[in-house]
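At this stage, I needed to go through a protein sequence along with its fold in token form, as given directly below:
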Amino acid sequence: MHAAQEKFREFRYRLAMELVYPPVVAAAKAWFRALDLKIQVDGAEHIPRTGGAVLASNHVSYLDFIFCGLGAQPAKRLVRFMAKKSVFDHKVSGPLMRGMRHIPVDRDAGAASFREATQALKDGEVVGVFPEATISESFTVKELKSGAVRLARTAKVPLIPMVVWGPQRLWTKGHKRELGKRHVPVIIKIGEALEMTKGVSPEALTATLKERLSGLLDAAQRAYPEKPSGPDDRWWLPAHLGGTAPLPEAAAV
């Protein structure tokens, strides 16, 4: 009886996801077309068309989950993102987050979120993770939590690094929201899955993931087709590329 109830619950959740998620994706695409955003996706072939996978992304803006989800569209995958519980408690975003079957993360009860994400991966779904946990105000890759590695290893699925660059110009921490800004280029780069070598510690694999994300982000930043329009517009560039974003050490403090 219990197994039948679980199957029905899973069917109901999947049905809700299929009903809610595609219209949200369509609305996001329409919004981006209206703003004439210049979105470039590189490496989409690295996302499997079937089976579970963990997508581990950098975090530069409040819109990253939307663009990471777009990066999985060529593979026809809907990504379930792990996001802080407060987003699910909001009266507007909450129903959408639940309808799209994203996974709430309660920092006081993280084990339950980990179990839900692991089961989703074993069921063949794609789970999106931001291993930096919070937005990087330096616009470099911060120190990572090991959860993405542990999820992929526990569920025995690929761990795929990806980065986004450009959405910070629309809405990020500590800066004015400009959701109506037009013609902004956004680069999404997806790398090959990490080799999850047996016997290598989660900490060592997380360090490798950080290196891979940093390499992808550096490539995206250097390929970005626009430069700041003047001295006051250099805030969205990291310090090592001539921007006025805080250095990683200062941003961490």
Remarks:
- Helices lie at 2-35, 64-71, 85-89, 93-99, 110-122, 147-155, 202-223, 248-252.
